Each structure stands twice: as structure tokens, then as C-alpha cells.
From TrEMBL, chains A, B:
Superkingdom of origin organism: Eukaryota
Residue ranges of every copy of the GHMP kinase C-terminal domain listed in the record: 268-341
Entry protein name: Homoserine kinase
Pathway: Amino-acid biosynthesis; L-threonine biosynthesis; L-threonine from L-aspartate: step 4/5
UniProt cross-references to HAMAP family, sorted A to Z: Homoser_kinase
Family: Belongs to the GHMP kinase family. Homoserine kinase subfamily.
Domain (GHMP kinase N-terminal) ranges: 125-206
UniProt-listed SUPFAM superfamilies: GHMP Kinase, C-terminal domain, Ribosomal protein S5 domain 2-like
Keyword set, alphabetical order: Amino-acid biosynthesis, ATP-binding, Kinase, Nucleotide-binding, Threonine biosynthesis, Transferase
Family matches, as Pfam families: GHMP_kinases_C, GHMP_kinases_N
Class of this enzyme: transferase
Gene3D superfamilies for the chain: 3.30.230.10, GHMP kinase, C-terminal domain
Length: 372, 372
């Protein structure tokens, strides 16, 4: 069982619910989701009625980029994430949603707005309500943050994913997963940029490659082996996504482009083959994004070195940081790698940090409680 | 059975020989070849003696780049390629090699030097002799060109691969496949650039991803399905590799970089899954190299359009061109696609062209005759 010793993460242990609201086929061999970004294909004939009075959903943390998978590849990690409790609420104006309560990780709660149009869960929920054509029912939403904001673990995507899945489920699960990802993208676009590499794996679970946005083409990449552990080490340091984006090069030399493309190919091949050594090599090999971002996170270069020296197959920045992510095939080894990385953050960067060792979340956002 | 109706291609039909000189394990699940570029690991203790008096080898044509796989991905196609006949020759100075005869495709023969240090087969043969430490035996080499030069089908790599495999085999097959690829790279470096995306699949067969050169890390990607057909349409037009390289951008915008990386990931995923639709989508999607090179090949844009309209899953330039390559799942459909592409070359580019429909060569360079 994975262990969480990071005080501001909420460790959870969930079994897949039969009420899961997602495509059943995301682990099939050659599945991709392609849809137009218009609603034409999913426009419903009649406004659906709620089939439940309340649901509680969960969506996992995600690791985007994975080195050379910058902006098009991400994966979900188990046991960390956000919860949404959604209720049919006669006190809320029909067709609208109200955020009744936000609790959980204190640093996150303090920064989040309860105005639905400024809240990642609220925006995704509204988008799903629009897609479903909800005009006659009001909803209230309670958000429980398990993830800190700005950690590089897809905090906003987890909230959006949990909200999107909850709204869809309370009305009978009419929308396909691609529409839920698009609803989540509405939220991501407003708060951190139009990138699906957090929201897609948060909703779908596992590894997801985003091949295109127009049309949306999401490619789940099933990892066939069991023994994949992520060591997530988060320092007490703020790395705002906007600042981490501003430092990226606008132009890339051809040799670095070819190098990163080949590493991206290796990353994908390694995921599909369950090849942890190859995955680690590829993960560590980014010559474009990580070299620009790592110097902005005190100690990151030493942390990566410490992870590799402690036996990790590879290490890079999770999302836009500051969390560092390493991969290994053994939980105990993962803990030791985590200790070494925490030490390196302190010794080289002067930053306190905590580590968790987590497995791949293969399920994605799901309903965990429902009341008729 | 694939059909060849291109007069200057030599169609061949080979069954895998038991004398094959390559790694047996290239179709295994998580195989990569990693080696240092030094000879330390393969330096032989004693000069090997020839175990045969002569061998005849074959190496297949290759399609490099495959759109977003630029400079790191290639595959071998069956039934087209070059032959080398190698003999122990007491009339040749010990430790040296002589090119006795070059024949086959006339346009190629006229342009090739019989001086071994200026000939792709000769350079690769010398490199293998050096790696083996041959000082006491002289060899004569006969090269039969099945491929035209400068067609974008890895003509020089096929000659180099056939020569490397022949020399290694006549001395008992002491060198691993990675050393044969390095020998072929010596040849490619001198004649067209230090890129292994033709020579690696020419030697190893199938699809090969080149992850790194230092150390050399070659990743075979097994295509699991049978029904993959390449439609190769070669116009009567010269597209020198140097000219086609000169037109490439030195710097690439971040959005195009991310796009091509994601397509490269999709390309690799599609190969490993045997997903022809995904393969075609990715193959057609290059926004960096193809848009610069296609305008230099009269009619290429119309040819691509014609291929897609005729039902191909995707189409791009093979290697540096001018051959266009499309993919399909049916040989008869492939012929029809080929006719439409030939028409488009004439109608839009004013170029005569011929087409062949070929399968994946999963074997790579191999010995097809040997005499004790």
C-alpha cells in the first residue's frame, strides 16, 4: 500500500465504484476518442432529469509533461486528489450552480473563490450543465481539496474533473468522456491554459496522449505492468504556472527538436511496453523545457541527481513544478529515493520538502457515493 | 504477394535464410540495443578466420522519417533492395577489399565509384573488417543495385547493410547487430550524414526508433498486424539529400515542436498497436519538415491529397524524397492508390512516376547464399 507522509496531501484509498462515470473501454488496445469541439454530436433532444439527489466524486492528481511529453502527455497517480459532493438543491435558481463550501488543504481553500465562474470546479460544472441543457434544476457543490494549488500535480484539473463527472452522473451519465474533458478544458483554459495533459488523465486515468485539439483526439496508453511507482517530492516553494511558462524558449533548434521527439517516441513506447528503464531514460532526457525551468526551482538539479543516484529509473519536474517526480519499480526503494530527494531539496535548495510514493491511477475520476 | 511495376526497381522475393546474420530477438517486447561507440566491448581477442569462401547477402529498402519521425524513425520494406556477393580473394592484398563489379539499376551503377573508400558498400565493409581486426585475408565484393540512388528509399544504406552483414558472416558472425549499424553509420556519415534511420532498419528490419547515438540506443518497434502495405511512388526527379536538408528550418516554434512531438508519440503508439488509422494520421501530420520539402518536389502536395482521397490512411515523403509513401491495409487498394498518386504526379507536377506496393520487411539484412 502506498504511504503518504505529506501533511497537506490528503491520502485516500478508494476501490473502483460500480457507479463510475467514464468510458469502460479506455484500456482497450487501439482506442482513441475523437470528437468535434462542437456540441452537435452530443446535443441532447430533451433536458435530462436528475436520477439521483446527490453524488460524491473523486478525481486523482496528475503528472503532466513527463519530460519530453511536454504539453501532450500526462498520467494520473492514485491516492491523491480532490472530492466534489453535488446535490440537487431547490434553494438554487434552476439552471444554476452554487458553491456551498470549500474545505480540505488550507493553503488551497484560502485561495479559491466560491464564485462558480471563477472556480475550477464551478466552471467545469457549468460547462457540463450547458452541454446537458440543464434549465430546470439548481445544484449546490461542495469541494474538498486534497491537493495544494500550484504544486505541479494538476490541482485545478482534479477539481474540474471531479465536478464534471459529478454533474454528468447526477443527470444519468449522458455525456461521453470526451465531452467531460472538453468541459474540464473550459476550466483549464480560464485558469491555467488550454492544455489537456492534466484534465484528460484526471478524467480518464492512466497515461493519456493528447494528439490533437481540433478535433479532440485523446489516446489512452495502457501501462501493462504493475510495478510502477511515482516518487513525488514537493518542496515548500511556489512555482506559478505563468512564470514557469514565461521562461520557455519560443524557438527551438532543430537538433534539440529531433532529440526531444525521439525521447517522446521512446516515452510512449516504454509506457506501452511497461518498460520502466526506458520510461526513466526518456523521462530524464528533456533538453528543452526542464533545463529552463529547473534553475527556477532551488535545488531541483541536485534533487534529480539524488533520485538517479538512489536508484530511480528517471526523474523530472511534475507539470510546471515545483514537485519533482521520479519513477521506480519498488515501493520501499521509492521511499528511500524520496528521502534522498527531500535531503537534496534542503541541502542544495534550502527548501523543506515532503515525499509520497504513489502508483498509477488507472481509473480516473469516478463517483464514490450516490444517493437516490 | 506484392507487385512491382517499376522498371528500375528489381523486384525480389526472398524467404528468410537460416544463415541470417542478425540478432534473433528483435521482435521481443522490450528489446533495445545499447552500446558504447568504442570498440572496447567487441574487440576480438584474435583475428577470426573466414568460415566460408563466399556469401551473398541482401538488404532491404527503407522508409525514413515517416513524417514526424524525422531523423529518428525508419522502417524496412520488403522485396526491394541491394545485393552483395563477397568472396575470399587471394588476389586481393590481405586486410583489404576490392570492388570487382557493380551492376543492376543503370542509373545507380553509372554514379557509383568502385573505389571502396568512396563507395557505401565499400566503406561499411572496411569498417566491419577493422572491427574484426582482419589483416590476413583479402576480399572482393560485387554489388548489385536493386535501388536507384537519391530516391528516398535508403539506397546507400541498403548497400552498406548488405556489405556489413556479408563481411561479418564470412568471418563467422562475431559482431553484434549494433556494431554492424555503427559500421553502416560510418558509410552514411561519409555519404549522406550521421543518421541511423535508414541503416538501422536496413540491418534490423521492421520499424526502428533511434533513441540516442552516444551511446547508440536502437529500439525495435514490432508492428503486430499483418495487413500493412506501403504504396511507394517514385517520380523521375532528382531530390538530392543535401538540397533537401538545406531547406529545413534551423529554429522551430514551440507550438510546432509540441505538435510534432505529440504526432511522433502517436506514430510510435500506432506502430506498437498495429493501428493503421493512427499510423496514417500521424504519418500525414508533420508540420515542420514536409511543408518545407514538399514544394521542392513538383506535384507532391497533390500526390498526398490524391492518396488520401483514394483511401490511404496517410501519406508523406519517404526519406528526403522524391518518393512519396502512403499506407493502406489492402494490396489491391494499394495499387489503386498508387495509380491515383502516379496520375497526380503527372497532372500536377508534370512528372512521370511509377508505383509499387510493398509490405513491411521484418527481417532486415540477411545472407541468402553461402559457400563453404
Amino acid at each position: 500500500m502506498a504511504i503518504c507522509n505529506y501533511s497537506h496531501f490528503k491520502p485516500i484509498s478508494l476501490t473502483p465504484s460500480t457507479n463510475r462515470c467514464r468510458f469502460e473501454s479506455s484500456t482497450s488496445r487501439v482506442l482513441t476518442f475523437r470528437c468535434n469541439n462542437s456540441l452537435a454530436s452530443t446535443q441532447l433532444k430533451a433536458e435530462p432529469e436528475p436520477v439521483l439527489t446527490s453524488v460524491k466524486s473523486f478525481a486523482p492528481a496528475t503528472v503532466a509533461n513527463l519530460g519530453p511529453g511536454f504539453d501532450f502527455l500526462g498520467c494520473a497517480v492514485d491516492g491523491l486528489g480532490d472530492f466534489v459532493t453535488l446535490r440537487v438543491d431547490p434553494d438554487v435558481h434552476p439552471g444554476e450552480i452554487s458553491i456551498s463550501h470549500i474545505h480540505g488543504v488550507e493553503s488551497s481553500v484560502a485561495k479559491l473563490s466560491k464564485d462558480p465562474i471563477s472556480n475550477c470546479a464551478g466552471i467545469a460544472a457549468i460547462s457540463v450543465m450547458k452541454k446537458l441543457g440543464i434549465r430546470s434544476v439548481g445544484l449546490s457543490l461542495e469541494l474538498e481539496k486534497g491537493l495544494p494549488l500550484g504544486s505541479g500535480l494538476g490541482s485545478s484539473a482534479a477539481s474540474a474533473a471531479a465536478a464534471a463527472v459529478a454533474v454528468n452522473h447526477i443527470f444519468g451519465g449522458k455525456l461521453p468522456v470526451s465531452e467531460l474533458v472538453l468541459a474540464g478544458l473550459d476550466s483549464e483554459q480560464k485558469l491555467s491554459g488550454y492544455h489537456a495533459d492534466n484534465i484528460a488523465p484526471a478524467i480518464m486515468g492512466g497515461f493519456v496522449l493528447i494528439r490533437s485539439y481540433e478535433p479532440l483526439d485523446l489516446v489512452p496508453l495502457a501501462f501493462p505492468a504493475e510495478e510502477l511507482f511515482f516518487v513525488l517530492v514537493s518542496p515548500e516553494f511556489e512555482a506559478p504556472t505563468k512564470k514557469m511558462r514565461a521562461v520557455l524558449p519560443k524557438e527551438i533548434g532543430m537538433s534539440h527538436h529531433v532529440w526531444n521527439c525521439s525521447q517522446a517516441g521512446m516515452l510512449v513506447a516504454s509506457v506501452l511496453r511497461g518498460d520502466l528503464k526506458g520510461l526513466g531514460l526518456a523521462l530524464s532526457s528533456d533538453k528543452i523545457v526542464e533545463p529552463k525551468r529547473a534553475p527556477l526551482i532551488p535545488g531541483m538539479e541536485a534533487v534529480k541527481k539524488a533520485a538517479i543516484e538512489a536508484g530511480a529509473f528517471g526523474c523530472t519536474i511534475s507539470g510546471a513544478g515545483p514537485t519533482a517526480v521520479a519513477v521506480t519499480d519498488d515501493e520501499e526503494k521509492g521511499k528511500e529515493i524520496g528521502y534522498q530527494m527531500v535531503d537534496a531539496f534542503m541541502n542544495d535548495g534550502g527548501l523543506k520538502a515532503r515525499s509520497v510514493v504513489r502508483k498509477l491511477d488507472r481509473v480516473g475520476a469516478r463517483v464514490i457515493e450516490s444517493n437516490p
